[in-house]
Amino acid sequence: MRITRRRRRSACSACCRRASASPSSATPARRFFPIPGRGFSARRSRPASASPPIPGASALLAALTVSGLSAQPFYFAGFLPAKTGERGKLLAGLVRLKATLVFYEAPHRLAATLSELSEIFGPRAAGVARELTKLHETCERASLPELAAFFEEHPAKGECVILIAGASEEEAMDDAAIDAALREALTQHRLREAVDHVTALSQLPRSDIYARALALKEKK
After folding, report:
1. Does residue 3 contact residue 37 with C-beta atoms inside 8 Å?
2. pLDDT at residue 107, as a whole number
3. Which of 10, 35, 93, 182 sits between 20 and 30 A of 211, alpha carbons compared?
4. What's the average model confidence in pLDDT over 12-30?
5. What tens digit of pLDDT does each residue of 124-166 get?
6. Is pLDDT of 14 > 50?
């Protein structure tokens, strides 16, 4: 039985009923595993009802293999939240993570997501793997801004995986970078929201960022 994102709850219940009635059952994994099937796995993980896994094609592992980025360590974030605030908060918390970041994304949102990622992570090395383990699979490797521009001109089709190089040891926001981030944020948000955004990015005290923001506004 297939478990999809839209029918996750009802499909998981049906699968559990069938598995409980069957003397032998298993949990297959394919493509975007483990996102849609996690509810079934959680219910079936109890000792009395555990099912052995049957590994299948995994877009996550396949993308890491062909990306050219480090696979040790890596951080799998799955699909990004749809709400802007939740998405920004999540990404801000990943800026300084020294691990390759892996995301899943729908093709119609790919270009916009890459543009947003390039604003947050800058020109980091990245890759976009598409239709992995299938006939028309591709993997584009470039900086985030370059990938955003490429997919703006060449809309993607099929399942997409985004990979971003982790933070380097030397990576840190200097004064110029902080001011640039504040100027950009102030064009889109009110003062308080802009300060919160750059504080999350820089990991510096909010009072310092607030003072810099006030100074920038006075210079206008």
Report:
1. yes
2. 94
3. 93
4. 56
5. 999 999 988 788 889 999 999 999 999 999 999 888 999 999 8
6. yes
Query: Distance between CA 14 and CA 215 in Å, rounded?
Result: 60
Report in angstroms the alpha-carbon separations of 28 from 61, 169, 195.
Answer: 16, 39, 46
Beta-carbon-side half-sphere exposure of residue 129 (alpha carbons within 13 Å): 23
| Phi, psi angles (nearest 5°) of residue 71 | -100, 5
Q: How far is CA 89 from the centre of its chain?
A: 12
Question: Residue 158, by phi and psi: left (phi above 0), alpha (psi -120 to 50) or beta?
Answer: left
Q: Whole-angstrom Cα distance, residue 171 to residue 98?
A: 10
Q: What is the amino acid identity at position 6?
A: R
Whole-model pTM: value is 0.61
* CA nearest neighbour of 131 among 23, 32, 14: 32
CA distance 48 to 50: 6
**Mean pLDDT to the nearest integer, 41-53:** 50
User: Is the separation of the CB atoms in 94 and 75 below 8 Å?
Assistant: yes
